[in-house]
Amino acid sequence: MIVFMYPGQGSQKSGMGKLWVDHPSWELVEEASEAADKDVAELLLDADDDELAKTYNSQLATFVLSMVILDAVTRLGIEAAGHVGHSLGEYSALTSAGVLNFSDAVALVSERGNAMQAAAEEREGTMAAVLGLDDDAVLIACNRTAADVWVANHNCAGQVVIAGAPEAINTAISIAKELGAKRSVVLTVGGAFHTPYMASARERLSKALACAEFRDPIGVVVANVDSMRHERGVDWPDLLLAQLTSPVRWRQTLSTLESVGFTTYVEIGPGKVLSGMVKRELPQRQKLAISTPEDLDGLLDILVPLSVPVPQSEIAQPQSQVEVSDFPTCEGEHFFAVERLVVSPASGIFNMGTSVKPGTNVSVGDLIGSVGDVEVRSAFSGELVGVLALDGERVTDCQPIAWLRLH
After folding, report:
1. Catalytic residue status for 83
2. Which of 89, 127, 141, 191 has the maximal Cβ count within 10 Å?
């Protein structure tokens, strides 16, 4: 079982989009720029590290690049049974799982970044990583500090991030050292995230969340706040609000994924922070990071041996004048036994046909729906088991649309 993981703020770096600018998935950047009313391409290509480090820029840029890379992975015909994200990355996970549509997610991420930037300017705060000390001992160090300091991230064994007032951070670091911490590193961030210092951001974000549509997720999505799986879309607005002022329980999230049965952990987005945490927390599991186009080959190298193509002798042949060559085929389709899937012929918004109902029989050439102005027709005859794309969802070229059981 494959789970995709999405990084949060801090993984960004100047020029991180340059390797992707010529990839077909770069088209998402233009869509994101329209939704955010901001030049996202400039952030990904030309912004320097100082400009990109600003909260309202780093969050938007990291989210959009993660979605570009996910789009590239999807074009190979590879999907995951689960999606999780660290802090900001939770919005990427929800978009990937179909809970949020892309334009709503861009708007929410943009507002979240602006709200958190404003909250950070109201109250000075910072963060620090405490290394080599267990979670309980780090919590004790925070509790023994008289000023404002809290645990912000439970990342992995021996790595806990604290956040709060700068002077309180220094005091907590000293206490943590007394308790046995190997070392502590003050992080270059713009505020005390995932603490009560973000309360005003929570109030502001709630208005934006009320304007977005939340659907039930496809697959497993585990929340930062409680490290539990949530299967109802209506639960996520409150979870996202709580996340702003609550610690990210990433270590516990990995434990939940392990209990569900995930075996392959793939980081989608800039950097390799999350895959590094998996290496430390779940050393027996397969993990890799996809941050450049070249990394796509590594993903294929891992997954190709796991696929079992259907022998040509077992593939049902169409029984009409419509030729299979009239329909799109894509590299990597064997991961999903595409002989039994209808895939999208283009990128765009999927609109389901009015006669498409699971359990009905479909003939070669029957209309499944449309992607923008392009019709989606079946290349096979069989029973329609299910539709794999949501009506109104953005799909990519060669993304599976419908699942057929061949006659």
Report:
1. no
2. 89
